[in-house]
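Researcher: I'd like a candidate sequence for this fold, 153 residues long. If you have to choose between options at a position, lean toward the conservative one.
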């Protein structure tokens, strides 16, 4: 297998390409942990709306249980070469209380509106506080492109 060629991108290029992926990608790995039950990681659909990642999952899921007990979470886009890792704080919204514009954006992206289902769903909003993005070893240095909720310039 040939190793992909890596060209070091500027912080501005990494930010732009990360925002493009957040707008376009479909899946995100969500990692949570519960003080009594330990770590949990699951892939979910997501939308990027209002400078936050929004996922939706069943109201009784381990993801929701964990996020309520320990709101610090990590997210990753599923690409091991073009890495994007986000960490932030999760906030849970029952499908009856989710901000309409966030739920509408999610429904528009996927053609599925959990608010119309018989089962109960919870939307989880994660506002990133730290974002790391890199492609290969040349970009490991300077991979933090958001720190304390502010994009690095």
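Model: Candidate sequence:
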């Amino acid at each position: 297998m040939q190793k992909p060629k890596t060209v070091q991108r500027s912080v501005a290029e990494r930010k732009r390409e990360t925002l493009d992926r957040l707008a376009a990608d479909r899946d995100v790995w969500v990692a949570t942990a519960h003080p009594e039950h330990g770590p949990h990681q699951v892939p979910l659909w997501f939308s990027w709306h209002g400078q936050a990642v929004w996922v939706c999952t069943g109201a009784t899921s381990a993801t929701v249980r964990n996020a309520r007990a320990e709101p610090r979470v990590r997210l990753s886009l599923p690409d091991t070469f073009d890495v994007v890792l986000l960490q932030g704080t999760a906030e849970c919204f029952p499908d009856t209380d989710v901000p309409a514009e966030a739920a509408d954006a999610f429904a528009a992206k996927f053609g599925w509106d959990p608010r119309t289902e018989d089962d109960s769903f919870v939307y989880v909003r994660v506002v990133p506080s730290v974002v790391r993005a890199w492609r290969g070893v040349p970009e490991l240095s300077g991979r933090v492109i958001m720190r304390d909720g502010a994009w690095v310039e």
